Structure formats: structure tokens, C-alpha cells
Give the backbone structure.
Amino acid sequence: MQTCTHLDQVRDVTPGTHGCEECLKMGDIWVHLRLCLECGHVGCCDSSKNKHATKHFHHTQHPIMKSFEPGENWGWCYVDQVSLDFA
């Protein structure tokens, strides 16, 4: 079973917005939100047409995001391609 080797990069972050930062600027919509656990960027998920959370990873190389949906405690490491449990 593969594990995440980037947990040391998780920070105590404050979300930059309450919606997808880029979609809000564009006046667009999203499906679900993801929170970067290194800088607090809020981006839309890969089910959203703009996929801003993944684009944020490709631009910054910040490896770990967490669902920013109420009641969800899971995350994802883009580098190691593994799910994380933040419960």
C-alpha cells in the first residue's frame, strides 16, 4: 500500500475565499471545492469544467489538497496519487 511522503508540507492554512478563486474572478461556476493545504488556495475539483485545484498543483507543485466541502474529511496527494483521511 502506497503512502503519502508529503505530509510534512501540510500547513495550518486559512482559505483565501469561500469559492473557487479563479471561477469567482471569471464569473464561472464549479461543482465541488478543494483546499490547498500548503497555501490556502481554494480551487474547483476535476468534475468542474475548469479544474482549478489540479491546475494550482501543476502551477505551484503544492502536493496536498483537502476537500473543502462541509462534512468531508478526505484529501489527495497529487504527487503520490493517494487518498488521505483527515478525520
Remarks:
- The CA atoms of residues 8 and 38 lie 10 Å apart.
- The beta strands are 33-36, 42-44, 64-67, 74-77, 82-85.
- The chain has a mean pLDDT of 96.
- The radius of gyration is 12 Å.
